[in-house]
Amino acid sequence: MIILYTKWATNYINGCLFWNNFSGSPIPEFIGSLSKLSELALSSAQLAGPIPHQLGNLSRLQVLDLRFNNLFSSGNLDWLSYLSSLRYLDLGDCKLNKFSNWFQVLSNLRSLTTLYLGHCDLPPISTPSLLHLNYSKSLEVIDLSNNYLTNSIYPWLLNVSSNLVDHIDLGSNRLHGSIPVAFGHMASLRYLGLLSNRLREVPKFLGNMSSLKMLVLSYNELRGELSEFIQNVSSGSTKNSSLEWLYLASNEITGTIPNLGGFPSLQILSLESNRLTGTISKSVGQLFKLELLLLSGNLLRGVISEAFFSNLSSLDTLDLSDNSLTLKFSHDWTPPFKLFNIFLGSCKIGPRFPKWLQSQNQTVALDVSNAGISDIVPDWFWDLTNQLYYLNLSNNEMKGKLPDLSRKFDSYGPGIDVSSNQFEGPIPLLPPNVSSLNLSQNKFSGSISFLCSISSHLLTYLDLSNNLLSGRLPDCWFQFDSLAILNLANNSFFGEIPDSMSFLRNIRSLSLYNNSLTGGLPSFFMNGSQLTLMDLGKNGLSGEIPTWIGESLPNLVVLSLRSNKFHGNIPFQLCYLSHIQILDLSLNNISGIIPKCFHNFSAMTKEKSSNLSIISNYYYNLGLRGMLMPLIYFDKITVTWKGGQYEYKSILGLIKIIDLSSNKLGGEVPEEIMDLVGLVALNLSNNNLTGQITPRIGQLKSLDFLDLSINHFFGGIPSSLSRLRLLSVMDLSYNNFSGKIPKGTQLQRFKLLQKFMAGIPLINPKAAPVIDLINSPATLELPPDLTRLLLLVYLRNILLIRTFSNLSPCETVPAEQNSPQATMDAAVPSVPDLCSFLNAFLAA
């Protein structure tokens, strides 16, 4: 309830209650009786409910601010039409999607000068409704950003605007194509924001806008060369030399950076994430007022010396990351600037640690990742970290030990990434308020007891994988209730999973892969209903696979329990995992049959689909110009693929795998599995499966890898396998197949060991560089046009190879008793050397 004091009298002039918490109370009706009220500010006041129509009685009201409230779930906007004196209206972040007549109501406010309707979900304008409206001609500031507006907004906008308009923001709408030339007649326009639309072409009238100072065209699919755009802006009836902000980020702009000498007032130059090539124009270094230089994510190259920055004393943000640039500064160089934000990831800076950073004592974000630095981090550097929000030293070869950081990083919720370096020794005490921490891929050793000193509940991301860490997991996870990412893989932790992990209710990605953890799978993990990845593989966990995995973790995309000691049947409740894309239960002692209900894995029933929910995005608000520093975490998992083990990361959402190999499963393979047409890999090898391969296997058109070896399958190999045009590796060895070998199309390696097959065409002769028939007592006639064959393994086989006139024999390798004999293309030089290589490759 809103309690109003006696000051709310009829002669009250100003009412300011913004940033209060009225807990969902409505606006009192009697406010409409305050006839002399001129200002009413209720932004962020936690108000709700319909707005009383009595507010329309406030004929003297000039300022109305209702931003960030929930006031428009019902009712109408008619009361607004009666506020004839209104000059300032802010309804930002109030949902107005139900009011299709919003523009008609606003057209009655003829005194309005400032209009903020950003983030209101405004529906598009109906153009015929504009014909009989009267319009305000006094609007100076118009913010309609982040709505659903289309090109139909242009006539209304041009009618309500005048030569007085100073600011127009149409960012994040649904505009497309050309902008009306009439915009060029807005002689007073200083700010034009068109961020995140689909314009695709640069407006031709920009050169006529002599007052334009801030131009935002990022995220618009703009095409063409940058030089043409610059010429467009700087030409026209009046050359525009007053431009201060130029945002063209995340488009498809090409070419080199031209001479920018025509823009001496430029303060912000944002060209990141385009396709710019060549070197950075020297004219950029002559922009004396430049404060932000953002050129990341292009194809720029060349060497940048300290002379380039000699005139940029106003620079406070520098982003040159993700290019092919080399920064060549003298060791004792002192820059003329004090940078707040430094992003130099993937620039060549090393091998020495950049000493010029010692002068940058105001920096809040620093990224020198993948910079070729192979030095010891100097002590003075850690003294600069007190104000850092974000530190990224990853993917270098930095050495040494980390000092005690518990009294560094005084900023709120800092992010620290020193992964993929050569740091060693125990992990020191860290800032208690850290929000993300990545120490993976180093040589840290000892326990992780330091975690118990982190007590701020801010930690969302913790990656300590691929180190030399050991000991029991600490039992202080109750303080990490915000943790979303936890990766402790590839260390030497032992013992049971501690009970306090039950507090990880917001966990999305959990990897404890390749440790020595024991005991059962704790039931408290069922509290992690947001889990998308759970990798507990390669430990010593035991017991039956819990039914609650399927019942309580509905969002799982990746589940790996491989290489543990689980036993019992596969619970049918796993079939509830409709989003699952990787299911790896291999290398356990699981028995029973494969559940028929696996066809409920709906994510696997779709071809060419992907799941991006395993990509986690976090942002650090750097507090400067509203800049956000992105942190993107790609979940990763190790899977068995074509005989090897590989870690998948950035493309993890694209692959779909079922691996039940090396268990004790019996019975037949359910035909229902053939409904999983999105499967990329199916590995059922080394079990006790029986029966025939169903002809429906030809439905698995996405299949690239199929391994049914070491089972008890019998009968013929279905000809429908020839329809699997993406299949590159198939292993059917150590079964009891009979009959003919069907044609394939794209096989790169085909194994058919220890069976009797009467054969005609083995595979498509234009596709397979490797054919492995070792230990197979088969009599086969191979086609004569195996033009791409690199290796034919036929030890203890009877092969009719009379037609291979273009092939010459490899030398026998006597060192191994089972070394394969082979035949290969005679055109390959140094046949003995290549034979040795191929034999070694096969043995591996």
From TrEMBL:
<keyword id="KW-0325">Glycoprotein</keyword>
<keyword id="KW-0675">Receptor</keyword>
<dbReference type="Pfam" id="PF00560">
    <property type="entry name" value="LRR_1"/>
</dbReference>
<keyword id="KW-0433">Leucine-rich repeat</keyword>
<comment type="similarity">
    <text>Belongs to the RLP family.</text>
</comment>
<dbReference type="InterPro" id="IPR046956">
    <property type="entry name" value="RLP23-like"/>
</dbReference>
<protein>
    <submittedName>
        <fullName>Uncharacterized protein</fullName>
    </submittedName>
</protein>
<keyword id="KW-1133">Transmembrane helix</keyword>
<dbReference type="GO" id="GO:0005886">
    <property type="term" value="C:plasma membrane"/>
</dbReference>
<keyword id="KW-0472">Membrane</keyword>
<keyword id="KW-0677">Repeat</keyword>
<keyword id="KW-0732">Signal</keyword>
<dbReference type="InterPro" id="IPR032675">
    <property type="entry name" value="LRR_dom_sf"/>
</dbReference>
<dbReference type="InterPro" id="IPR003591">
    <property type="entry name" value="Leu-rich_rpt_typical-subtyp"/>
</dbReference>
<keyword id="KW-1003">Cell membrane</keyword>
<keyword id="KW-0812">Transmembrane</keyword>
<dbReference type="InterPro" id="IPR001611">
    <property type="entry name" value="Leu-rich_rpt"/>
</dbReference>
